[in-house]
Amino acid sequence: MPRRAVDGGELPSPRVVSLTVVRDVEAPSETDSIFVMQFGQVIDHADGSPVPCCTEDGQFLSEQDYAHGKCFPIVIPKDDPFYSKFNRRCMEFARSAPACRNDRKFGYANINTHFLDLSPVYGSDDEVASDLRTFQKGSLKATPGPKKGYYYEKDLMPADNETTLDCDNRVNDAPYMAVTQTSLFRQHNRLAEELAALNPHWGDERLYQESRRIVVAQWQHIVYNEYLPVLIGRKKMQELGIFPLQRGFSHDYDDKVNPSILNEFTVTAFRFGHSLVQGNLVNEQREKEKSFLLRHLFFKMQEVYVPGNVDKFLIAQATLPGETVDNYFTVELTNHLFEEAGTGFGMDLVSLDTQRGRDHGLRGYNSYRAVCGIPRAKDFDDLLDLIPANVVESFKSIYASVDDIDLLIAAVSEKKAEGAAVGPTYACIIGEQFLRLKRGDRYFYDLGGQAGSFTEEQLDEIRKTSYSRIVCDNSDIRYLQPLVFKLISDLNPLVNCESTDSIPRMSLQPWKEVEITARLKY
């Protein structure tokens, strides 16, 4: 059942929490690029639900209409400064599908796999995976890129039209999401083509599986070697022992570790990136060409088909600062999320995320402080060790007890952990999740002695991978900083994409087979 206040009463409406605590203030990071937010979305992106829980004019349904038990609508106050202008009192929210866990306890269904296997690119089941393949030379289906002068740009992910891309439908949320996944999709087809040239005797299945295996390994390496140190800090990673090895094989696999996605991780901790920025196009000279209101980009892929825009969206994510993780969220997300043309309003992401935490029965923020080794707060003022005074005062005005405070709104408000983009509570939860994903995955890329292990020579090449190299190799961008999750600086300058000294490129030579050996082996 959804969480209630410690005294058994109702918790404040998530919309009241959003209105009281959240501010629309720009607070750009001094060190991190937009890619920190966007890369996190590719790792974990929540599904919506089509179940109607409000009337078309924004009022509550009758009791009999709730009989299916899936509705958990968000109450909008009568005096809401924004929604009252549209006479909205009800915000759609459908409960997550329940499921029974292996330990026979109540849980929630997850239609994706629980591993870092790039399911947004390859699919999460055999049917989707097959639909995405050409079954020719190991490649994934593609849509020709837009025509630019006398030639076509690089391929895009498959699409039925110029408004939506296929595969995981969440790729259509906004162009930033689409172009980030496009870089990984292109990487697969590029590797499949190179492996086919290197091993002409390989058939479609071998080319597909080996290309997928390499791209997933590169993805995992980037996550642990580049992304997590920025997100949770190097100190936390050293404490957990999850830095990837620089040479040799790991033997970290533990069949007693459950790699399943933690409720706290998917529902709140990995939604830190929801303080999204507005859309921008930045050219090769690092000049901002065009800005978009985010409300005009949701589920609209037309901009991706404009010649040159894939590269410009990628450059924008590498060049512009991301927002800091805090209680500042743009109104594009708190009033205009997924806004339909002509309506003037959308949904409130902070309200939705808060309600999702309650729907999943998450405990209050104070409980997670204790779990993460942070002193449990006896009263509101005890929160001042990590949360700014003005935010604590706003908590006092809406929550009856310090134990009632929702995890999401408190955790995003924390002071940052040492060298991290998030506070200590989120660093704790995120760190625990990625520890499990590494130790509980028998196919993790750097493991030795497993059926899916690479050779040591192959592993050495995979370790040369960086996300900047993947962007360079799968776009027409000429200059990029080596560390794309960090802003351009004297220590992280723009370099030529052709420079393998500045941005190393892996070689596929360790995958070359002599045909007679391959015949004996297969």
TrEMBL record:
CDD domains: peroxinectin_like. GO terms for biological process: response to oxidative stress. One of its GO terms (cellular component) is extracellular region. SUPFAM superfamilies: Heme-dependent peroxidases (SSF48113). Heme b binds at residue 274. Transmembrane segments: none annotated. Gene3D superfamilies: Haem peroxidase domain superfamily, animal type (1.10.640.10). GO terms for molecular function: heme binding; metal ion binding; peroxidase activity. Keywords: Glycoprotein, Heme, Iron, Metal-binding, Oxidoreductase, Peroxidase, Secreted, Signal. Signal peptide: none annotated. PANTHER family: CHORION PEROXIDASE, OXIDASE/PEROXIDASE. This is Peroxinectin.
